[in-house]
Amino acid sequence: MGGCCCCFPSKPRRENPMHPAAEPLIQGTPNHTPPHHQPPPVITSTDEGKNAVVRLKNGFQRFKTNIFDKNPKLFEPLKKDQSPKTRHCSIGSAIEFALVVLKVEYIVVIGHSRCAGIRELLSLKDEGPNAYHFIEDWVKIGMNAKNKVQRENRLLPFDDQCTVLEKEAVNVSLRNLNSYPFVKDRMSKGALHLIGARYDFVHGSFETWEP
What distance in Å separates the CA atoms of residue 25 and residue 28, rounded to the nearest whole number? Predict the structure, then answer.
């Protein structure tokens, strides 16, 4: 005859198949603090796992030191296959479509304050190995602007030089726009206006100028 455990004069013991000894069905008062009452583990500032960015950065550094630097020729085929085999047409086609098809009359090139790319450009050494695979090549388009800013504003602090370079880099882009024949043609006809701008999101200002 069956019955619930409440009907027994003493509570039966059940067997734990993972352990030869029997264990009580209802445990006594636990002698430890429940997990949700345990104090959180103390994480020191030296723990690498506390920051995903740190882990990612250290992982890249280990790869570069332990694998890439020891056998760079191994990656030459990958580098060759990933190199562009045709001219970069995405930007040019977008500008051409905007001017020739959509008849856009104004192009505004906008820089912004505290630009990480500008800071990287201003920190680049004229000579020496690259610290990254692509970043230097990306920002080196503004190398002449960087040299001009450092030459004309060498007494300014680094952050102030960055501010000047943020504007000068916009001027580089404006000059590059003039290298497209459809831009030059519409500029000569007065059908297109180029405007430079810088957005300072720290102080909430927006500055514009014409080249």
Answer: 10
